[in-house]
Design brief:
This protein has 28 helices and 18 strands. It is α/β, with parallel strands linked by helices. The chain folds into four domains: 171 residues, P-loop containing nucleotide triphosphate hydrolases (Rossmann fold), CATH 3.40.50.300; 65 residues, no CATH class; 158 residues, 3-Layer(aba) Sandwich (Rossmann fold); 139 residues, PCRA, domain 4 (Orthogonal Bundle). A hairpin with a 5-residue loop joins strand 14 and strand 15. Helix 23 runs antiparallel to helix 24. Pfam families: UvrD-helicase (PF00580), UvrD_C (PF13361).
Length: 631
Amino acid sequence: MLELSEEQRKAVEYVDGPSLVTAGAGSGKTRTLTAKIAHLVNRLGHDPARILAITFTNKAAGEMKSRLRAVTGRPAEAFPWVRTFHSACFQILKEHCEVLGYQKPLTIHSEYQQKTNLKRVLGRLDLDPKLLNPMRAAISRAKNSENPWHALDHSFRVPRKREAYELYNELLVQQNAVDFDDILMLTRDLLRNYGEVREICRGLFDYILIDEFQDSNAIQNEIVDLLLRDGRLTVVGDDYQSIYRFRGADPVHFIRFPEKFPGAAVFRLEENYRSTEAIVKAAEALIAHNRYRIEKTCFSRRSGPPVAVRGFTGEDLEAAWVADCCWQYHLYEKIPLDQMAVLYRTRFCSLAFERAFRSSGIPYQLMGGRGFFERREVQDINAYLVASVNPRDDASFERIVNVPRRGIGSGTLQKIMGYKAGPLSMQEACRLAFEDGVLPKKTAKELGRLLHLLESLGRERPDRAIRRILEETGYVEYLEAFAENERDAGERLENIEQMVHAASQKQTIAEYLEDCALLREDQDDADDGHGVRLSTFHAAKGLEYRVVFVAGVEEGLLPHWRSVTVGTGQEGGALENEAGIEEERRLLYVAMTRASERLHLSWCRTRRGELVSPSRFLDELPEGLIVREDL
C-alpha cells in the first residue's frame, strides 16, 4: 500500500457515502485517489472492472493505470473504466446508440472530418469559408451548454448559426457519426430521457471517483448524477485551481458539493509536499481574498527563501534580468534549465523572453503553443512587410493578396498568372494585368490600392508600416469577423500590438524581419526538450519547476481587463466582475504554486510603450513572506 498521511488515509478508507477531498497544490491528491481505488480492490474486494474513475486527460488516465498496476498487482486492462469523461461516455453511447436512432458501430469524427462537413455547410449557406473556425467554435459551445439555442444566439459574430447547426447535425446523423462535443451531450440525453438505459448504466458501477472535479461543467455534473447509485461517489480537486471558466467549468459544483449531498464527508489535504513554506503561505494569503472557496490551511515543512517581487522600467529589462537569473541558477546552483519556467498570463508576453533568451544564448521551449512569429495574424502582417521590401517574394504576396478579402479569387489569379512569364514576379504580373484593364473594375481598384500600399510601405519605419497596414486594409475588422470568439479576437489583437512595440525598436523593416527570422530559427532548433520553459499560466497547470518567474503581474494583464470588465457604471467608470477577478486570482495562485524552491514575481512600469501599474494582487501578499526590489 502507498505511504499516506493521516488525512489521506482517512479519505482513502471512507466508503460509507459521498465524500469530497479538497486538496491543496502539491498535496498528493492523485496519490490519494490511486490509493482509494487500490483500497476498494485489494482490501474491500471490489471488482476493478466495476469502478469508474474519471480523469481530465488521457495522459492522466494512463498514469493512473500504471500506478494502479504497481499498487494492486493487477494489469492495466483490469481497470477498463479509468477514463476521461469523453472516453467513458463514448463507451456508454456506442453501446446504446440505437435508442437515439444511430446504428452500430457508431464512429467519432476526426477534426478533419468535422471541418470537411462544416465546409459543406458553409457552402450550402453561401457563407465565407473563413468562417469555418468561428462556426466550429460556436457549434462546440452550443453542444457543451445546457441550452444550445441560447448559446448559439450569444455566439461571437457568426451569421446564420442556427441553420448551420441544424445542417451540420443532419450530416452527422446521415453519416452515422458523432463529433467530440456530441459525446457528452448525447450521453446526457440518453441517460436523462431513457430510464431503462439509465438503470443498466447505473448497474455497471459499484463506485465512482472523479479527479479535478473543480474543472467539471454542468453537463458532466448531470451525467455523474444520472449514473450515481447509493451515493458511492468520491470527488477530488482544488477549487483554488479552477481556471477554466471560459470553457464552461464552474467551481460552484465543487464548492456546493456538501450542500448537494448533506452529510457528505469532507477531507482536507493541506500539507504541500512540493513547495517551500514561503511560497505556500504567500499563495495561501493571496487566495484568501476569494470569497467563494472551501477554506483550507495549507502548509509546508520545507524552508526556503522569501518570494521575490521586482519592478522594472519595461518588458525588455524584465526579460533580460530573467535570462541573466536563469544563467546564474544554472551555472552556480547547477539547476537544470528545464527545471526553470517563465510564466505569463497571455501569449503575447512570450516575445520579449524569446528575444532575451536568444540574445543570451539560453535554450528555451515554448509550452502549449506556437512561437510568437508562428501565429497567423503575425505571419499575415509580416507577409505584407516582406512583400513591401521584396516584391519578388511571391509566397508572401500570394498570402496577402486576398487577406482581407478583395474579391481576388482563383479566376482573377488565373488571369494574373497568364502575365507571369519568365522571371516576372506576381506583383509585376499584377501591374501588367492592371494596366491592360483585363480585371473587373472593383477588383482592379482593390488591387491597385494594395500595390500602391506595398510600394509606399518600404519607406516607412517598421512600426509605422504595421499601423498603416491595419488602418488601410481593414485587417482589424477582418480579424474580429473571423475570430472564434471575443477572447480569440482580443488575444490576436494583443499579439499585433506586441508586434508594433517590437518593430518600434528597429530602424528599418529589413532589420525587423531579420530579427523575426532569427527567432523562428532558434525555436526550430529548440525542439529537443532542453531549455527554460516559457508558458502561459493555463498551459503550466499540473506541472512543477524548481525555479519559477511569474512575469507581467500588472493591472490589465493580471487581472486581465477582458476577464474583469462587464460594462460601465453611471459615472462612466468600468464595472468589475467579481467572478472574473476571483478566477484571475486563482490563475496567479496556480502560477505561484508551480514553484518548488524559488519564486519571482515581476511587473513593469511600461509595457508596449504604455504606462502600467502593479497588480492589485501584489498588495495582497504579506510583507513578511516577500522581498521587494525595483530595478
